[in-house]
C-alpha cells in the first residue's frame, strides 16, 4: 500500500455539482493541493485548527448531482474567461476536474419526471452510496450549493429536501449552503433527529450579511440607535437568474433580515432589494444605507459598498464546512452543529449572531474536535447515537 493509499479519503458530494461554486471548489482544492495557490480564505488552514484532525485537502474526493450537462472542465474554462478562476488554472487542473466530472450523476426532478418522491430519494441515496464504495472513502459529506429555490407552499418535498433526505438515507452528514428548505422541512425533522448524523446550515454568509454581522453588534455595543437599514444587491449568473423569482428572493432575504433583528435586538426600517443583472456574471455588488442616531440625537449615516465574486467567496467556506463536518462525523457528533454558525446567515442550532462571538464558538469547536473520544464510544455524540452508514465497508 502506498503512503497516499494509507490516508483515509473523504468524499464531498455537491448538489449543484456543475455550478459556479462547485466548479470553483473542485478547481480551487486541486490548485491548493498542487501548491499552485495559497489557501486564502480557508479558515481551517489557519493555526487554531492545526491538530483538529481535519481531513487534508489532498484527501478530498468530489462528486455530486446536477440537472445540467455542461462538463466541469468546460465550466471551469468559462469561469476563467469571466475572471472568476485564474487564467490557465483550468488547464493546470484539468485531470482533477475530469475525475470529478466522472462522479457527477443526473439530479432531479426534471421536467416530465414521473418518479415519486420515494423513487427520487432512493435513487439519489444509491448514487451517494455507490460513490463512497467506488472511491473506498472513509465517509462523505453532502453539501447543497445549488441555486436558491422558493419556499415550499404545500406538503410536497422540494428538490433540496429530496437531496437532504437522500443524504440521511445514505448515512452522510449534510450541509445546506443555500437558503433552500433542505432539512428544514417538517417531514424531515424526525429523520434528522434520529439519524445520529451531524448537519449544518443554512445559507452561506459570504458578503453583505457577513458585513452586517459585524456592523450590527458594533452599533449595539456602542449604544448607537439604528433607525433604518436598507440594502440593494446587484448580481448575475445562475444565482441572479434564480433570485429574479420573488419567492426565491424572499427566502434569501429572510436570512439577511434575521441577522439585523438578532444583533440589533429589533428590526429597523428598510428592506433588501435583489436585482438580476446578467452582465455582471458571477460578480455582485451590495449597497447598504444605515441611518443611526448618535449622542444628543445627532442623526448620522453609514454607507457601505461590497463588490465581490460570489464563487470565490463561497468556495473556501464550502471546503471548510466539508472538512469540519466530516471530522464531526468521525468523532461521533450528531445533530445540528450550532458552532458552525460563523459560516451561515440562518444557522441551525443555538448560538450567537455576531461574527466575533461566532468565531469564538468556532475556535471552541476546533478544540473540541481535537479532544480524544470518550471511552467506550465513538466520542462525544450529542444524541448518544453513533455516527454511521456513510463509511467505507443544481446548478448555481
From TrEMBL:
| Span list, region Disordered | 371-396
Q: Which residues form the Myo-inositol-1-phosphate synthase GAPDH-like domain?
A: 207-311
Give the matching Pfam families: Inos-1-P_synth, NAD_binding_5
Domain of life the protein comes from: Bacteria
Q: Which PANTHER family match?
A: MYO-INOSITOL-1 PHOSPHATE SYNTHASE (PTHR11510)
Q: Which family does it belong to?
A: Belongs to the myo-inositol 1-phosphate synthase family.
Write the protein's name: Inositol-3-phosphate synthase
